[in-house]
Amino acid sequence: MQARALTVDFEARAGENDTNAVGHARALDEPAGVEQLVRLLAGKVRDGETVLLPAVLGLDHPGVFQELAARLGAPVGEIPLVPPSVPGLRLEHRLDRLASAERVRVVMGARVVDARVERGRLVSVTSAAAGRPREHRAAAFVLAAGGFESGALTMDSYGRVTDTVLGLPLAGAGADGEENLRHLIHRDYWGSPQGLFRVGVAVDAQMRPLGPDGTAALAGVHAAGGVLAGAVRWSEKSGEGIALGSAEAACDAVMAELGHSPSNNTAALEADAATGRATGPAKSKEQD
Question: 155: helix, coil or strand?
Answer without folding.
Answer: strand
